[in-house]
């Protein structure tokens, strides 16, 4: 690109007027440029101490201070010169307009936006840029909508992906100025306004235009990345190396200067992804191909090509080092007039390269750049064959420059036929040597019909050769651009585009030619467009705020543009002169002098007749006319073009035969002859082409929203961060920045919102003037006290507008007020300090006196104590001597007494012992004599009794024989009972035999004693079982507490739900009111029609729900049938066990007859399932901790396999019975009828089943031949009583249901039909009941007959069987044991009932809540027709379904506890039964309802499982579908955490068990593919991703745990080790699952980061929780960098953001915990999330100058403490999660820390987690929130930087500025074995996995 150099205008120097320099020249210069220094100010601003700017020859402007007030137009200032010497200057001004510019307050110095300065003028702009660039190292600054970019000449770490991410989504003024902010503004406006955008980058050469444009395109490529495979954004970035190689070159001002202008359009789709691009180029500097100035280079591609000359593939190009070529080394050129003889032998020494003697660039590797260029060619689709042809053409151009032309006779020139370069050119370009040799030295002239060939002179031939070389390069350049555009071409029409214009800045050299003229012409057009756009935005803001404004005059350069492009303007006259046969530069300039003198912007130099002057917007520029015509024509010989057209090289042939209409510059090909033809006259000149292309460019820019980037070159020496004010001010004037400042200053540059203004300046008014409900009125009162001139401010709709300087004036008033307040505070503080000092001194004197007096008193007291002590010692010594003497005497006397008394005591004891022994002997002798007499008497009595009893027995025998004869008569009367009597006689005989052999049973009694010992052991075992039951009860209590905790959480959720429902009801009420108003306006017919439609829709809805309920009832029916079947089986088993027990006890055992029925009836309500075999029941008591996992709501609960029936709970009132089975949704009218009907049908089915059961039992009884002999007779009687009671219950239920139905719907025919059916069923039941009564009567009669027979046989002596009372004694003993067990069971029952009462109360509460929800639903359904009842019903059903799931979990827990209590009771009952005590009364009625209802429970047989599921391979996809595809998170949360993983692994174990390779491979592959498919489909659902992350990890852990590896078996049980895989090694699949887990983990992190990202900045940086400590800078001081049309609000209110962030984090934690995620993984997740929060907040802080001050640091630290407290609440603080917040915490501490030289070491030690760049950046950005706080000295920053450099040595990371938001910590999945036994895992009913069979 051509360099931009402004003609240096020496600023005003004080040396011109040493005494009183005048500012008039300065003012006059600004008046010419259209810029004013400032608006007129009040004269009282210029008081003593005011700071102003005065002109300076070195720094352009120098700061000075007024030493006295301004008066009599005399200004006296004091300043410091460049040597540090203070000088005083005094001068007079003619008017107030010539007063020196005022300086802004310190608080405004270094602002991001120049328009935020109170005083807007040139010195303020220049100084602000210098401070930011030199002190803060900030290269970007806003000036309104313009971004000023200063070239730092140093690589800065501010363009990485993290920086792009930081600016994404932020408006232009939110963060620090940056090229990415401008790009984001353009991209966002394209999305928001749906309008094309453009970015105009301008500046002089070396200012960094190309780099700025490149970074802008990089930003668009990053944020607008396409989803297609073409990846057009990569191709756009890849085009930069190519365009820099063929279009950039080294100049004296820039090592990589663009020598062409380009405009790149980036095309976007409707989704705003890049779909293509298009590039237009302007004014390629072709002359550089053949000429370079000193210290400059040709285009980079030539040097890159030569650097690769050693490549084998490029050997045929015959390239050497760059010094060999003339075009690149014209500084070594010999005399062109030397003959070929003198140059013979030097053919290998080329002459054309490096004319500037600078073939190399420091720090640039041409060979590496060449490889980069080749890679870019390949990426853009230019293959190696095409590249080879491109390199041939480039090499041909170089060799063409080495073709030696020789002068022949002065009028002609020749080329030696042996010239090696000529042959190389012909070979490389594929053209004949003879033709090119001829037409390089000749030209063709056409005269009429004759054609002549004329030789050219040496000068003409040289010019022709160079023109050909330039033309070939231009064609090649255009072809490469066209190929790039083809690669960029969009496949479809683009939706919108963003254009990036990289074009030359204003240029002026010592000699300016045609190129500078075109460049400055383009800048005039761009400046005009810029002025109009800035003016338009400024006026639109005033109109928007509805304020009165006057038209702002701005510099209009339209006359200058008309001078150039209008008719008879400069370009028109130039084209006319080019068409003249003998046109020349001199004749053209003469025409300019004549035709253009009427233009004010055109003038003729005084001392030159070959140049002209044009007054451009930046400066006057003089142009030399030499070469204008030739450059405008750009002629090339037609014969030379024809030779190239006939080339054998395809690319060369294509370049000159194909007409590319897209080429931005077209070369006019004409013969040298002046003869004109019609075709030649139609060809445009270069000037015309450039004018047309510029008009097209301006049309494109005007159709877009422009964005401006002005690049500034800080110095000419390319020194890093060195600012030359003279060079900078020239460029600021040239690029339009000062024009922007002038337009802003002409209006109202300072703008404040009412709240911000009131908050900052309320100190300037009284409290009574503050109206908090009307901020505008408050602001008016504040301003009325400060500013009198109403023109200095305007009140807008939302803002207050101020003229320039008013904010500085108000800041001065505010500072004065605060200073006065400070003085007042200081006065009182100093008074307080002096008073305290006096009090302290007085107190000290008193204390000294006190201590001195105390010392004297202590000395006196010490003496007195010594005297008293001496006396005391004497007394003590004397007393001690006497006491010792006395104690010795007492001891002697005591010992004598002790010995004497001991002797006397021993003698007395011996006497007493002898007397006692004599008494004992007498007692024993007397007892023996008495006992012997007693035994003798007893033997006699017993003998007498035996004889008497024998006599009585014989008499009784005779009587019995007589009675036996009478029995024969009874036999005749009762022939049907003969068999029974015979059997009784046989039994009697057996009893007599047993009495004979009674002595033989003594041994059996001994055995029974052994059995008694065993029973005692059994009792011990029973006690152990009781202890086990107690442990289980404790466990139940613990689980109950956990249930209460979960219930509290659910209540919180319900409370939140009620609040939402309340808001919904209010909204519905408002909508209903509106709908009611509209409904009244409708006709009656419309209302009826809509009502019919609604009823029809509801009917269909109700019918669908009816069908669903029918299906549910069918399922319940099947379940009930299974229960009945189990009930019957248990009854049969019970009967069998009783028979076995009777046989075991023997015939002598006590049998229960019909007379015992009354005793048994008391326990008839016990459930029949209580009778079990010994092994099953006992194992159910002691080993029933974990019977499987199926449908557990909470992962902490172990009560898992529970039946889902509320019938297992005893309801407290009859009203609860309707809700016992399920929670039903009550809807108005018809819906309620359907529900009752379904309940009624269910009861009908149950009654029918009972009827069939009763019929079967009756048939069985009727078919029995001998009911009296049946041992189960009593049991049948008991069963009949139970059925009778059950029948009565069902009858009551039917009556209640019938009554409720009749009350609810008396007119419903369908209900009446059902009632009739019920009445018929009731009659049938009554009939069956009568049959049962008759059956009982028959049984009772038979029992009475049997009892009568017994009494007839034995009479009143029935007790003869137990005549010795032995059975009664045994029964009493066992009865005591039973009573003890009974008491224990009663206590257990009491505890169970208390627990059950609590559960029933909880269920009652839930039932009431459900009824309330039903009423609410009914109200919503009965609303108007427009309220959409279907939607409300569906939503309510979904909500109640979710609640039912929660309630079902509670019911499962309660049912499981009830089952455990039942098992305990059954165990106790069994022990009592085995002991012979029978069923204890009222102990087994726990399982019944209050009305004696029997609720049977289905239980599975206890069996041993192997922990695997068997399945058919054909059902494999069905299993995957149920467990993976269709599994919903809301359903999975009710299962055991990781249940799908357990089921899948158990299936894998079965495949391993059967050793089926194909089956296990297919299953694992389907699992992997299924998980991938589900995650891809639901990747945006956090619950689904967390669910499968947990399950994949659980499956992975299971594969490790059961792999058989010793490393994973450390915590396994023996059973788990036995269940290890035997046949397969699945380690490879473990790696696959680990990879999938990492993939899902990354998806989870991405989802969380997307949810957290909008909350980071508002919650961490913007949230202000500390009252009275504002951390935000006033909006009026932040400038107006963003587009005025852009007013984006934060998506989250900062005051609510922190709570929302904590709520999101809590929700994340609960989701992870709910699905059973490993604790270690939860720690890793939140470690990553907290790092993301830290990175996002720190990056934003580093890019926001308004955030870097002390109060904001305090607010940030307080906000971060909430995150730390959250980690402590979640118990994550010990895992190092908060360590990731260390950088942002240290940044907040750095903002709060003291910043003095003594604190350098402490700050460096404190900020060990921050990089050097981050610390320096924060210190540079640190801005005091108020002027009373001191700024950070630049020396302090330098000391910090020097200290940190020691730490940064060897740490590359210290160079990074922004944290990498994409950084991810390594993911680790620690092995977490499961304690769950596979054999305990059960399939829940919610999963339709009937194809799985547990093995």
Outline the structure in words.
This protein has 1895 residues and is an alpha+beta fold. It has 50 helices and 25 strands. Strands 5-6-20-7-16-10-11 form a seven-stranded mixed beta sheet, with helices on both faces. It has a four-stranded antiparallel beta sheet with strand order 1-2-3-4. Strand 17 and strand 18 (611-615) form a beta hairpin. It starts with 23 loop residues before the first helix and ends with a strand.
In round numbers, the mean pLDDT is 76
| Biggest β-sheet: strands ordered side by side in the sheet | 5-6-20-7-16-10-11
What's the shape? elongated
Unreliable runs, pLDDT <50, ≥5 residues? 1-41, 331-350, 660-682, 1147-1237, 1265-1271, 1358-1363, 1423-1429, 1477-1501, 1680-1689
| Radius of gyration computed on alpha carbons | 55 Å
Total beta strands: 25
Distance between the termini: 82 Å
Please, how many helices? 50
Q: Which structural class is indicated by helix and strand composition?
A: alpha+beta
Most strands sheet: 7 strands, mixed
Short description:
This protein is α+β, with helices and mostly antiparallel strands and 1895 residues long. 57% of the residues lie in helices and 6% in strands.
What brief labels describe this structure?
alpha+beta, disordered N terminus, 4-stranded antiparallel β-sheet, 7-stranded mixed β-sheet, 50 helices, elongated, about 1900 residues
């Amino acid at each position: 690109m051509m360099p931009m150099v402004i003609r240096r205008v020496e600023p005003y120097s004080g040396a011109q007027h040493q005494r009183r320099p005048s500012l008039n020249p300065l003012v006059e210069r600004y008046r010419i440029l259209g810029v004013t220094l400032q608006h007129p100010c009040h004269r009282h601003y210029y008081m003593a101490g005011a700071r102003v700017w005065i002109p300076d020859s070195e720094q352009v402007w120098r700061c000075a201070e007024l030493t006295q007030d301004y008066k009599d137009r005399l200004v006296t200032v004091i300043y410091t010169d460049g040597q540090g010497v203070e000088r005083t200057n005094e001068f007079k001004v003619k008017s107030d307009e010539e007063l020196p510019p005022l300086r802004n307050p310190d608080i405004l110095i270094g602002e991001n936006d120049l328009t935020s300065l109170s005083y807007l003028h040139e010195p303020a702009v220049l100084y602000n840029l210098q401070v930011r660039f030199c002190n803060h190292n900030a290269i970007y600054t806003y000036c309104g909508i313009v971004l000023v970019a200063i070239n730092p000449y140093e690589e800065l770490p501010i363009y990485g992906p993290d920086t792009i991410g930081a600016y994404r989504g932020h408006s232009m003024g939110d963060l620090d100025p940056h090229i990415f902010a401008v790009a984001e503004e353009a991209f966002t406006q394209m999305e928001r306004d749906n309008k094309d955008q453009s970015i105009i980058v301008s500046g002089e050469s070396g200012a960094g235009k190309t780099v700025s444009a490149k970074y802008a395109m990089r930003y668009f490529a990053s944020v607008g990345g396409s989803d297609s495979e073409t990846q057009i954004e990569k191709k756009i970035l890849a085009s930069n190396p190519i365009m820099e190689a063929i279009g950039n070159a080294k100049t004296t001002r820039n090592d990589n200067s663009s020598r062409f202008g380009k405009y790149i359009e980036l095309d976007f789709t409707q989704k705003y992804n890049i779909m293509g691009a298009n590039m237009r180029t302007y004014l390629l500097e072709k002359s550089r191909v053949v000429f370079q100035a000193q210290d400059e280079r040709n285009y980079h591609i030539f040097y890159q090509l030569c650097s690769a000359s050693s490549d084998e593939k490029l050997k045929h190009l015959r390239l050497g080092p760059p010094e060999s070529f003339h075009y690149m080394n014209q500084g070594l050129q010999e005399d062109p007039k030397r003959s070929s003889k003198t140059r013979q032998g030097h053919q290998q020494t080329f002459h054309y390269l490096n004319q500037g003697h600078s073939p190399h660039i420091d720090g640039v590797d041409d060979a590496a750049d060449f490889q980069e260029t080749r890679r870019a060619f390949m990426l853009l689709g230019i293959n190696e064959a095409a590249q080879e042809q491109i390199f041939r053409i480039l090499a041909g151009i170089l060799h063409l420059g080495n073709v030696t032309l020789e002068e022949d006779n002065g009028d002609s020139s020749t080329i030696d036929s042996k010239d090696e370069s000529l042959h190389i050119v012909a070979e490389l370009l594929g053209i004949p040597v003879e033709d090119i040799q001829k037409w390089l030295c000749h030209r063709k002239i056409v005269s009429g019909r004759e054609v002549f060939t004329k030789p050219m002179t040496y000068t003409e031939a040289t010019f022709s050769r160079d023109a050909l070389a330039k033309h070939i390069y231009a064609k090649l350049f255009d072809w490469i651009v066209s190929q790039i555009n083809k690669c960029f071409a969009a496949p479809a029409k683009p939706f919108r585009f963003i254009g990036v214009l990289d074009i030359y800045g204003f240029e002026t050299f010592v000699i300016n030619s045609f190129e500078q003229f075109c460049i400055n012409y383009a800048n005039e057009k761009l400046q005009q467009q810029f002025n109009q756009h800035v003016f338009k935005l400024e006026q639109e803001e005033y109109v928007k705020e509805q304020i009165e404004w006057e038209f702002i005059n701005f510099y209009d350069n339209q006359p200058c543009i008309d001078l150039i492009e209008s008719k008879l303007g400069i370009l028109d006259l130039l084209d006319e002169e080019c068409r003249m046969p003998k046109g020349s530069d001199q004749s053209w300039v003469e025409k300019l002098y004549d035709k253009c003198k009427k233009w004010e912007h055109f003038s003729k130099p005084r001392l030159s007749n070959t140049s002209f002057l044009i007054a451009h917007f930046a400066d006057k520029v003089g142009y030399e006319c030499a070469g204008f015509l030739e450059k405008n024509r750009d002629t090339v010989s037609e014969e030379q073009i024809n030779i190239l057209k006939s080339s054998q090289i395809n690319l060369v042939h294509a370049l000159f035969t194909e007409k590319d209409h897209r080429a931005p510059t077209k070369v006019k090909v004409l013969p040298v002859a002046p003869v004109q033809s019609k075709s030649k006259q139609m060809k445009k000149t270069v000037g015309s082409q450039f004018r047309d292309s510029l008009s097209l460019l301006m049309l494109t820019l005007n159709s877009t929203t422009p964005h401006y980037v002005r690049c500034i070159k800080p110095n000419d020496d390319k020194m890093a961060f060195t600012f030359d004010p003279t060079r900078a001010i020239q460029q600021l004037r040239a690029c339009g920045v000062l024009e922007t400042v002038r337009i802003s200053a002409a209006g109202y540059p300072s703008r404040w919102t009412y709240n911000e203004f009131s908050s900052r300046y309320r100190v300037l008014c009284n409290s009574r003037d503050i109206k908090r409900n009307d901020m505008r009125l408050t602001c008016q009162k504040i301003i009325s006290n400060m500013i009198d001139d109403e023109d200095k401010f305007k009140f807008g709709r939302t803002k207050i507008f101020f003229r320039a300087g008013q904010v500085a004036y108000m800041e001065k008033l505010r500072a004065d007020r605060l200073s006065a307040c400070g003085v007042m505070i200081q006065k009182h503080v100093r008074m307080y300090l002096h008073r305290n000092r006096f009090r302290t001194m007085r107190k000290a004197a008193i204390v000294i006196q006190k201590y001195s007096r105390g010392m004297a008193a202590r000395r006196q007291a010490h003496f007195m104590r010594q005297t008293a002590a001496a006396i005391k010692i004497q007394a003590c010594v004397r007393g001690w001597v006497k006491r010792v003497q006395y104690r010795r005497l007492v001891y002697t006397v005591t010992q004598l007494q002790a010995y004497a008394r001991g002797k006397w005591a021993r003698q007395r004891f011996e006497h007493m012992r002898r007397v006692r022994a004599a008494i004992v002997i007498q007692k024993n002798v007397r007892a023996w004599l008495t006992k012997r007499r007693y035994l003798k008497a007893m033997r006699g009595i017993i003998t007498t009794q035996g004889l008497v009893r024998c006599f009585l027995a014989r008499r009784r025998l005779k009587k019995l024989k007589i009675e036996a004869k009478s029995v024969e008569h009874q036999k005749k009367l009762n022939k049907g009972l003969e068999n029974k009597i015979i059997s009784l006689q046989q039994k009697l005989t057996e009893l007599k035999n047993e009495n004979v052999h009674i002595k033989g049973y003594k041994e059996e009694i001994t055995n029974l004693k052994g059995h008694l010992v065993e029973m005692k052991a059994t009792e011990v075992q029973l006690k152990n079982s009781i202890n086990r039951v107690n442990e289980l009860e404790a466990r139940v209590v613990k689980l109950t507490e956990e249930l209460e905790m979960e219930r509290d959480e659910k209540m919180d959720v319900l409370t939140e739900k009620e609040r939402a429902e309340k808001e919904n009801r209010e909204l519905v009420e408002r909508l209903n009111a509106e709908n009611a108003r509209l409904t009244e306006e409708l006709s009656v017919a419309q209302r009826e029609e809509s009502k019919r439609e609604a009823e029809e829709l509801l009917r269909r809805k109700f019918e669908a729900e009816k069908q669903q309920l029918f299906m549910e009832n069918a399922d319940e029916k099947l379940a009930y049938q299974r229960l009945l079947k189990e009930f019957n089986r248990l009854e049969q088993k019970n009967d069998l066990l009783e028979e076995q027990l009777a046989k075991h006890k023997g015939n002598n055992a006590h049998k229960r007859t019909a007379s015992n029925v009354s005793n048994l009836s008391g326990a008839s309500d016990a459930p029949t399932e209580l009778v079990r075999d010994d092994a099953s029941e006992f194992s159910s008591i002691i080993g029933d901790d974990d019977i499987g996992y199926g449908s557990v709501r909470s992962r902490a609960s172990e009560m898992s396999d529970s039946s889902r029936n509320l019938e297992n709970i005893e309801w407290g009132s009859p009203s609860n019975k309707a809700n016992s089975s399920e929670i039903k949704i009550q809807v108005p009218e018809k819906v309620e009828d359907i529900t009752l009907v379904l309940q009624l049908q269910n009861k009908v089915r149950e009654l029918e089943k009972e009827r069939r059961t009763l019929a079967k039992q009756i048939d069985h009884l009727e078919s029995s031949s001998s009911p009296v002999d049946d041992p189960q007779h009593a049991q049948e009687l008991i069963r009949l009583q139970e059925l009778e009671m059950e029948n009565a219950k069902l009858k009551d239920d039917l009556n209640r249901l019938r009554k409720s139905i009749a009350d609810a719907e008396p007119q419903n025919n369908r209900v009446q039909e059902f009632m009739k059916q019920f009445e018929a069923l009731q009659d049938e039941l009554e009939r069956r009941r009568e049959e049962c009564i008759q059956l009982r009567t028959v049984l009772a009669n038979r029992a009475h007959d049997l009892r009568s027979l017994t009494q007839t046989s034995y009479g009143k002596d029935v007790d003869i069987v137990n005549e010795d009372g032995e059975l009664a004694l045994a029964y009493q003993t066992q009865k005591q044991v039973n009573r003890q067990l009974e008491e224990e069971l009663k206590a257990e029952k009491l505890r169970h009932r208390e627990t059950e009462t609590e559960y029933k109360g909880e269920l009652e509460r839930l039932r009431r809540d459900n009824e309330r929800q039903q009423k609410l639903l009914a109200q919503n359904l009965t609303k108007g027709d427009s309220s959409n009842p279907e939607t409300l019903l569906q939503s309510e059903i979904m909500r109640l379904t979710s609640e039912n799931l929660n309630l079902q979990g509670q019911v499962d827990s309660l049912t499981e506890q009830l089952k455990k209590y039942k098992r305990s009771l059954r165990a106790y009952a069994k022990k009592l039964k085995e002991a012979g005590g029978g069923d204890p009364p009222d102990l087994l009625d726990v399982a019944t309802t209050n009305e004696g209802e029997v609720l049977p429970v289905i239980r599975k047989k206890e069996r041993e499982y192997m922990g695997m599921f068997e399945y058919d391979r054909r059902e494999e996809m069905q299993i995957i579908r149920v467990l993976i595809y269709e599994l919903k998170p809301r359903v999975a949360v009710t299962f055991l955490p990781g249940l799908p993983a357990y089921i899948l692994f158990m299936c894998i174990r079965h495949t391993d068990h059967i050793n089926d390779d194909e089956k296990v491979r297919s299953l694992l592959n389907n699992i992997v593919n299924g998980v991938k498919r589900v995650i891809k489909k639901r990747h945006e659902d956090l619950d689904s991703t967390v669910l499968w992350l947990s399950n994949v990890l659980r499956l992975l852990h299971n594969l490790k745990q059961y792999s058989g590896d010793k490393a994973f078996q450390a915590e396994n049980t023996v059973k788990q080790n036995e269940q290890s895989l035997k046949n397969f090694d699945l380690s490879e699949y473990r790696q696959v699952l680990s990879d999938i887990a990492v993939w899902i983990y990354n998806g989870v992190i991405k989802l969380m980061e997307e949810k957290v990202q909008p909350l980071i900045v508002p919650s961490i940086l913007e949230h202000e929780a500390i009252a009275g400590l504002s951390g935000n800078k006033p909006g009026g001081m932040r400038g107006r960098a963003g587009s005025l049309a852009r007013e984006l609000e934060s998506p989250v209110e900062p005051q609510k953001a922190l709570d929302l962030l904590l709520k999101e984090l809590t929700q994340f934690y609960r989701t992870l915990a709910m699905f059973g995620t490993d604790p270690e993984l939860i720690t890793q997740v939140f470690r990553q999330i907290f790092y993301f929060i830290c990175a996002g907040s720190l990056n934003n802080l580093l890019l926001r100058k308004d955030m870097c001050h002390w109060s904001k640091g305090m607010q940030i630290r307080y906000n971060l403490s909430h995150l730390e407290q959250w980690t402590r609440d979640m118990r994550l603080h010990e895992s190092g999660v908060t360590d990731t917040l260390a950088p942002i915490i240290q940044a907040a501490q750095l903002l709060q820390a003291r910043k003095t030289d003594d604190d350098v070491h402490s700050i460096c030690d404190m900020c060990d987690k921050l990089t050097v760049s981050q610390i320096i950046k924060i210190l540079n950005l640190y801005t005091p929130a108020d002027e009373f706080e001191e700024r950070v000295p630049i020396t302090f920053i330098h000391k910090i930087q020097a200290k940190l450099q020691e730490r940064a040595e060897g740490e590359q990371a210290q160079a990074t500025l922004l944290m990498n938001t994409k950084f991810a910590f390594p993911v680790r999945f620690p092995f977490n074995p499961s304690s769950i036994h596979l054999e305990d895992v059960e399939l829940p009913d919610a999963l339709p996995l009937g194809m799985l069979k547990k093995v």
